[in-house]
Amino acid sequence: MEVRGVSSHLPTLCNMRISTAPLFDRHFKKLPRLLQEKAKEREKLFIDNPFHPRLGTHKLHGKRGAEWAYSVDYSYRITFLFLSGGEVLYTDVGTHDELY
Question: Is 56 left (phi over 0), alpha (psi -120 to 50) or beta?
Fold first, then answer.
């Protein structure tokens, strides 16, 4: 399947491993519990299919051009990097205005 804006040389993610940056961990802990729960549910979708339509996964631009983001809800996003070997690094979480 070809996804617009997605390079065909992205790693196979069937054995995806997600790690988190310290900044992500700090910001995640500050989220309200209900939002944390929603983020965990969205992560399940992400693991199954990083480009699931409900996530709205998109490539970032400018100084964060190496990163991607997906939506937790209308306001909150998780930013991440695709690393080699099916690894993903969550870099941050916050509102659109906080992240961009």
Answer: left
- Residue 18 is assigned to a structural domain of this protein: no
Query: pTM value?
Result: 0.85
Residue 13 has pLDDT above 50, yes or no: yes
Single-letter code of the amino acid located at 68: W
Tokens for 15? 């054995």
Are the C-beta atoms of residues 46 and 13 closer than 8 Å to each other?
no
CA dist., res. 23 & res. 34, Å (int): 20
Q: Is residue 4 part of a domain?
A: no
**Total domains in the fold of the chain:** 1
- pLDDT tens-digit map of 30-73: 999 999 999 999 999 999 999 999 999 999 999 999 999 999 99
Beta bridge partners of 59: 68
